[in-house]
Amino acid sequence: MNRWLAALLYALLCAVTFVVCFPLLWAISTSLKPKEEIFRWPPTLLPERFTFESYRELLFGGSAASAPGAGTPPSDFFLHWFANSIIVSVGSTVISITVATLAAYSLTRFRFFGQRAVPYVAIMGYMIPSVIFVFPMFLTLVELDLTDTLLGLTLGYVCITLPFCLWLMWAFFRGVPLEIEEAALVDGASRLQVFRQIVLPVALPGIIAASIFAFIVSWNDYLFGRVFMNSMELLPLTVGVMHFFDGTHVDWGLMMASSVLMTVPMAILFGFMQRHLVAGFGAGAVKG
């Protein structure tokens, strides 16, 4: 009976996995089809003729530049958009993790007024829809003359990633034993040495988990990039690919190819950090 139940569960998991992965499989298949085959009826999952034409146009330019109704050729800007997303995502992640780690450590090691309320206020800020922050953030960036700049967009992403990173790191630092640090302080180590050589290595799984979260949120955001950025060459990838659409023309080959390429950083990140991600989120959930 147990073997039949295990087989049934295994089959169910395989079916669920296929359903979840089917959109990605379809996107990969469409990106490898010739343009005349994309709209052929009935559709097929596997291309009859494999071609990398869409990827070539996307990365190196091609017929997309002269396609009727295509507007501004996306192939001229895709690599710029990709680089912009990398810059703002990495930048916001580094800032959020640095501030969250230092703040969370101080919240768990020092005593001051309002100490217990700060983490809960932070997580409440994360629970507020990000659309509410768009208008005040935009006015702030106008005053600082940072609109339509990658720095301004990076700061915008920090506002939506920092609260949860702070909460996660606070929950993780609460589980780091104080006795280890006290022993090092007694032996003559400074507070900075204790933090750098003892606390950070122990907290590494939590830092990695928070970093992955911050990077994913920044990489996938559309709203802030749409509102804060105007220059075509400075758009993030999520906003830039929308230029594949216009009123009369949609280049589905380029759209699917760009969607596949957008998943590459996430796939690499999860492939290398999966073990630390599970450990970090698990520790934060238990110790918080």
UniProtKB/TrEMBL annotation:
The scientific name of the source species is Plastoroseomonas hellenica
- Which residues are listed as membrane-spanning? 81-105, 117-138, 150-173, 194-219, 252-272
Q: Major location, coarse class?
A: membrane
Keyword vocabulary terms for this entry: Cell membrane, Membrane, Transmembrane, Transmembrane helix, Transport
The keyword Iron-sulfur belongs to this UniProt entry's keyword annotation:
no
Give the protein's recorded name.
Answer: Carbohydrate ABC transporter permease
**Locate the ABC transmembrane type-1 domain: which residues?**
82-273
Q: Which SUPFAM superfamilies match?
A: MetI-like
Q: How does it sit in the membrane?
A: Multi-pass membrane protein
Q: Which family does it belong to?
A: Belongs to the binding-protein-dependent transport system permease family.
Please give the superkingdom of this protein's source. Answer: Bacteria
Can the keyword Transmembrane helix be found in this entry's annotation? yes
The record's listing under InterPro entries reads: BP-dep_ABC_trans_perm, MetI-like, MetI-like_sf
* Localization (cell): Cell membrane
Checking PANTHER family in the record gives: INNER MEMBRANE ABC TRANSPORTER PERMEASE PROTEIN YCJP (PTHR32243:SF18), MALTOSE TRANSPORT SYSTEM PERMEASE-RELATED (PTHR32243)
